[in-house]
Amino acid sequence: MASGTLILVDTSDPLAVIDMPHFCNEDGHELVETEKTENGHRFLIRKR
């Protein structure tokens, strides 16, 4: 994937709300948006 690509991740893992920001921070990706959904969370990530 090219740098700047937007990736939409849907998860039902309750700990993803903690894990995804750490993942993005450690790997240099930008966490653009976090949304609570009926079944968990949705994350919009911009690849570094």
TrEMBL record:
Keyword Glycoprotein carried by entry: no
MF-aspect GO terms: transferase activity
Keyword Transferase found: yes
Taxonomic superkingdom: Bacteria
UniProt-listed Pfam families: TusA
Signal sequence, start to end: none
InterPro entries recorded: TusA-like (IPR001455), TusA-like_sf (IPR036868)
Record key words, sorted: Transferase
Database matches in SUPFAM superfamilies: SirA-like
Residue span(s) of domain UPF0033: 1-47
Entry-linked CDD domains: SirA_YedF_YeeD (cd00291)
Protein name per the record: Sulfurtransferase TusA
Origin species: Rhizobium aethiopicum
Organism placement in taxonomy: Bacteria, Pseudomonadati, Pseudomonadota, Alphaproteobacteria, Hyphomicrobiales
